[in-house]
Design a protein that fits this description.
- By secondary structure, this protein is mostly helical.
- The chain has one domain.
- It has 1 helix and no strands.
- 0% of the residues are buried.
Length: 38
């Protein structure tokens, strides 16, 4: 982990059926935009 800690995002196989697809898209987009320590 980088200094200051953080959240580790990992792939899973148990996404609940009631999760709207828009939420998953937002998750992936956010991970791509902010998911790297600099």
């Amino acid at each position: 982990m980088a200094p200051g800690g953080g959240f580790i995002l990992a792939t899973v196989h148990n996404i609940r059926p009631e999760v709207p697809p828009e939420n998953l898209i937002a998750l992936f987009d956010t991970a791509l935009e902010y998911g790297r320590y600099k």
